[in-house]
Amino acid sequence: MAFEKKKIRTETLPEYLTEVRKNASLTLEEVSVKTGIKQVFLVSLESGNYSKLPADVYVCGFLRQLAEMYNVETESLVMQFKKEKNIFVQMRGKEADEKKNWKEFFRRMTITPKILTIVLAAVFVAATLAYIVWQVFSINRLPSLEVFEPQPNQVVRSSFVKVKGQTDPGMSVTVNGQGVFVESSGSFETQLSLTSGPKDIVVAAKNKFDKTVAKNITIIGELEPSALSASPENKVELRLNFTADVDVSYSLDDGEKAAASFRKGDSKVLSGQKKIVLSVSDAGATEAILGGQNLGVLGRPGEALSNISFSADTTKVAP
Fold first, then answer.
1. Of 68, 52, 64, 71, nearest to 6 (Cα)?
2. Is 151-229 assigned to CATH 2.40.50.1020?
3. Nearest Cα to Cα of residue 178 among 196, 192, 158
4. Worst-scoring range by mean pLDDT, 23-27, 219-223, 226-230?
5. Is 2-105 assigned to CATH 3.30.70.20?
6. Residue 199's closest CA among 213, 217, 215?
């Protein structure tokens, strides 16, 4: 037998043809020239790509030409080709049948109330499991917290320092224990009074599961000479407690006006050297404590007040 004559251990026709050609020190191009067989067909024979070959009658002719050139038994090549071609056809047919069966399955499938109920139940169970996983993750996840201002060890030459940062939407934020209004985007901003020397600022964010993250920032206060010369007795400190949502605007010592919005339960401390001018959208929901003296609410519920002035000797609200 030709396979034994050449003493080449091969399992397939492509392997055999490749080994015989290489033992004859021939390239595919040389074989194509000598036999007249197109090189693309020789490549397909040696790679086993039978789908790229012409009809079997032509392939058998190719094999006879190759057997003559390689000096091997013709019938062995032809029989091996037919055997492997048959296996190839069966495998292709099986793959086509599998694809056809899947298509036929979906084509014949009818959506009945029972199937629809099963699908909806499966979707509900999957959604419930996803929600439970999300809740567990949320319970164990700490809020994000980033403080943009001030920076650690920053030297502040002012009687006030701005505290500005970002957290997750819906979080509660405190600065040195005082509640701060958080925007829907998660940003927050407030200001603290400052004296000379080091000052610790503790910013904390808490979610509804009481998971809290905090950042401690130490800054250095170096007040300007004009601020240092101000008499401590004239300092004005006003604490505002809110029992509903209130919009507030204020200025300190005739400085630039600032504005903020507060929610029920929030507090705000304002400090000035001589005067604080305040405007609120709901006087009845705003309680004022000036220098430790409780002045009560600023007015009637829903009443908007503008330009209320507070100084060190204020004893009652005076618009």
1. 71
2. no
3. 192
4. 226-230
5. no
6. 217
